[in-house]
Amino acid sequence: MPQSTVPFSLVLALALTMMLGPFSMDTYLPAFPVIGESLGVGQQAVSLSVSVYIFGLAFGQLVGGALSDRFGRQRILMAGLVVFALSSLVIAQAETLGTLLVGRIFQAFGAGWVLVSVPALVRDRVGGRDAAKLFSMMGFIMVLAPGVAPSVGSLLLQFGSWHVIFVALAVYALLLVPMLLQVVFHKNRRVSRQKSNLSILQRYRAVLSTRQALPFIVWQSAAFSTMMLFVTYASFIYQGHFEQTPSAFSFLFAANIITMLCFNIANRILLSRLPSLRILQLATCCQALGMVLLVLATFNDWGLYGFLAAMMLTIGSMGAISPNIQACFLEFFPLSGGTAAALLGAAQFGIAGTVSALSALLPHTLEALILAMAACAAVGVLMLLRSLIKGRASVEAG
């Protein structure tokens, strides 16, 4: 099906579903101080809820992706929404850090089943540059979520305790069910896929044996880890180091999302002229430049706004990096989109979760955090250089 024939209602429905991920990670960020006070722990302990969520998301995607190839997207997606909603309600009753962390693990597992189904649904319908355009159209809507989420969290805190945030997340997940049934899984919108009786391990073995696709997993994991380090410590950076209020934090956080939105718009325009890989290479160069400026801003004390500008370029470039990596990677797997999407998603969240957890061992300073982000971004630069070398070798061979 050509991308141009994809109805906007379908794009919107898939984007709203994908928004569940950033909403569940970012909505409660402004509440970190009050959560710590309520549970009798420090903000660094509350930050563990981000790390365990990332690990749970990775594991949930690994399981859900292969199951969606075997049993269908609808069953896995709906089951994930139910698990997410129920665990969110459990978190809303949490009175200890342990309950919060366990609830976040199950919440992430459900979210993993949800998130892995969306790229697979896209791959079921379109491929190549058309897939990149559809991912970008979804991203145009979905990229608003991380910017809006902290503001929504701050607003909810005005009307109740931090527990209300997780009740709202449960309601959001449940409201997605009738929308998806009507728009995505309507009988006239079903897409037939070839089915096989391969086991989960056989499916992952087949994906992992496609060596040309594997560098994109490393590339995405590196770029995503750079962003997740920022998300994990955003409250510490702006509310702790720069001593900003929760309301100011929401605006500072949203500034990064505005840049991401600009990159996403530019990506959609460039896709009519350039292949996904070339745009990916350019976006990675932008992230590398932003990271260099961020290191300079940190160690030369450029102040809040100099730091913010560098961070906006570093994080904003993800608006063009992620959709093009997804499109380039999934192009290799026309019949195993769910398994492939699961592996990509699990790898990025698993590696980012490991990096986030290990970052707790670093000195609790802005300088240490920025150097950790720079190390992750450097891996993305290596993948960029590898793709350029491979591309040049292909041209010479031709």
TrEMBL record:
One of its GO terms (biological process) is xenobiotic detoxification by transmembrane export across the plasma membrane. Residues 10-392 form the Major facilitator superfamily (MFS) profile domain. GO terms for molecular function: xenobiotic transmembrane transporter activity. InterPro entries: Efflux_drug-R_Bcr/CmlA, MFS, MFS_dom, MFS_Efflux_Transporters, MFS_trans_sf. It is a multi-pass membrane protein. The chain crosses the membrane at residues 46-64, 76-94, 100-122, 134-156, 162-185, 213-236, 248-267, 279-299, 305-329, 368-385. This is Bcr/CflA family efflux transporter.
